[in-house]
Structure formats: structure tokens, C-alpha cells
Design a protein that fits this description.
Helix 2 links the parallel strand 2 and strand 3. The model has no long low-confidence stretch (mean pLDDT about 95). This protein folds into two domains: about 90 residues, Rossmann fold (3-Layer(aba) Sandwich), CATH 3.40.50.10860; about 130 residues, Rossmann fold (3-Layer(aba) Sandwich). The chain is an alpha/beta fold.
Length: about 290
């Protein structure tokens, strides 16, 4: 069993991006500039946005954080988005989700200029992705493709099972892996909470991508020998033995599944670090 180390791979990608930025600066070209809008004070969102800002500094990007209070109205948020859309200095920006209940998430995502949508969530970019046209890929699926490629994991002709049908991971993943690309040409089954005989389907899979948000859902009796496992989930689980009072768990029961897997991503340190690296890669593409 080999661990797929997202931390190491993300660090390599950031180094490649830093070199590209350095080259741009030496040629007198524009420095990539990523902006993030954060509404309210959700702890996980704040941590995530701060790590994005730090990652920008590390690769030599300019970054802007627009920190808005919890009681920001939809109108005020749309005004901030419009300012970023029009600002020639900003190459790409993200609106950190989730948003407060009073704000329509879909309306906000629709308001982002597709050419600056480095999260890859705008319908224009989703449509281009589906039609295999050049576009920004959603950062987490993009990161998973990179891991499969860089670990030379064969996907062509393989049975891939994706568990979870979210617009952020599951659905784009199922589309990308079925396409004609390096990490692609697979036969993909997209499963979800209504799927019957999930265990039987998983036992046929050469590669399983789990993005369900249910800790330790996939267990050793659901997978065959030699399977490749990509665990996208990360949940805080109460654990009195830990100093913090909790531990981080993936959607895969690592203990039992890793005994059968040929490759597996750990949680934390697997898919997570790749998401930020690919967001930076999308921002570099936007700048170019």
C-alpha cells in the first residue's frame, strides 16, 4: 500500500507556480493577483481563507482579502463582486462558501465574471468543462486529477466509482474521469444516498473516490484487493483521547480499507492541500 501524499505534491506544484511567477516578474509581466471575499466569521472558512492568503504570499502572488460582516446584505455582496469583476488588477477571485442564509448562493456565483471564476463554479465554466473546452476546473477535482497523474495511476478502461454527487466534487469528477484525457478514459459510476447495492458496486471498482461527508463510511468489506482510494471527506469527530477533544476523519475507514488498497490518500494531508494548490494554478492561468 502506497500513501498518496497531497502535502508533498501540493508543495511541488507551488514550487512550479513560484518559478512561473518569477519568470513573469523578470520579463516585466503582471504579477498574478487573487482576491477572496469572506462573509461572517465561520471558523472553518476563516482558517481556509487565511491559508489561501498565505499560499499566495509563498508563490509570489498579490492577494486581497475582503472581510465582510455577518449582516452583509445580498445587495452589498453583489456590489463587492461587481467591483472585483471590473478591477483590471484582480485576475481571479473566490467567494468563500457557505454564505449566511439570507444570501442566495446561486445568485452570487452567477454574478462572478467567468473569466475570473478561479473556483470553476460558474455555469459557463461548468458547461465548458463538460464540453472539454479550455476552462477553469473546480479546484478539488483538478487536484485529484493531478494526484492520479503524478502517481502514474492508470485510469484508462478502469472501473471508477464516485460516491457523492455534489456540484463541487462528485459530479465534476464523474465527468472529468470519463473524458479523453491523461487521467481519464474511465468507466464511471456516480453513486449517492439513493443508490441501491452500493457495496456490490464498490466491490467491482478499481478506483473509488469518496466525497460524501459521512466519516468512515467506506469500510474494508466494501472494497476489493488492490483498489485505489481517494478520500475527499474531512469531518471533526469527538475524541476524548485527543488534546483538542476531536480528531479529523475522512469518509474512508482508513484502518480497514488501507489493508486492501494499492494506493490511498490520508486525511488530513491527502486531497485537502491540493485544493489550494490548484486554486493558485487557476489564478496563474487567469493571469496568463
Amino acid at each position: 500500500m502506497q500513501l498518496i501524499d497531497g502535502k508533498v505534491t501540493a508543495a511541488q506544484i507551488k514550487e512550479e507556480i513560484a518559478k512561473a511567477v518569477q519568470n513573469r516578474k523578470e520579463k516585466g509581466l503582471k504579477t498574478p493577483h487573487l482576491a477572496a471575499i469572506l462573509v461572517g466569521s465561520d471558523g472553518a472558512s476563516m482558517t481556509y481563507v487565511n491559508s489561501k492568503v498565505k499560499a499566495c504570499e509563498k508563490v509570489g502572488f498579490n492577494s486581497t482579502l475582503i472581510d465582510l460582516p455577518e449582516d452583509t446584505t445580498e445587495e452589498q455582496l453583489l456590489h463587492e463582486i461587481e467591483l472585483l469583476n471590473k478591477d483590471p488588477e484582480i485576475d481571479g477571485f473566490i467567494v468563500q462558501l457557505p454564505l449566511p442564509d439570507a444570501i442566495n448562493e446561486q445568485k452570487v456565483l452567477m454574478a462572478i465574471n467567468p473569466d475570473k471564476d478561479v473556483d470553476g463554479f460558474h455555469p459557463t465554466n461548468v458547461g465548458k468543462m463538460t464540453l472539454e473546452l479550455p476552462t477553469f476546473l473546480p479546484a478539488t477535482p483538478f487536484g485529484i486529477l493531478e494526484l492520479l497523474e503524478r502517481y502514474h495511476i492508470e485510469t484508462s478502461g478502469k472501473n471508477v466509482v464516485v460516491i457523492g454527487r455534489s456540484h463541487i466534487v462528485g459530479r465534476p469528477m464523474s465527468i472529468l474521469l470519463s473524458q479523453k484525457r491523461k487521467a481519464g478514459n474511465a468507466t464511471v459510476t456516480l453513486t449517492h444516498s439513493r443508490t441501491k447495492n452500493l457495496k456490490d458496486i464498490c466491490l467491482q471498482a478499481d478506483i473509488i473516490i469518496v466525497a460524501l461527508g459521512i466519516p468512515e463510511f467506506l469500510t474494508g468489506d466494501m472494497v476489493k484487493e488492490g483498489v485505489v482510494i481517494i478520500d475527499v471527506g474531512i469531518t471533526r469527530v469527538s475524541d476524548a483521547t485527543k488534546k483538542r477533544g476531536y480528531r479529523l476523519a475522512g469518509d474512508v475507514d482508513f484502518e480497514t480499507v488501507s489493508k486492501k488498497a494499492s494506493y490511498i490518500t490520508p486525511v488530513p494531508g491527502g486531497v485537502g492541500p491540493m485544493t489550494i494548490a490548484m486554486l493558485l494554478k487557476n489564478t496563474l492561468l487567469a493571469c496568463q
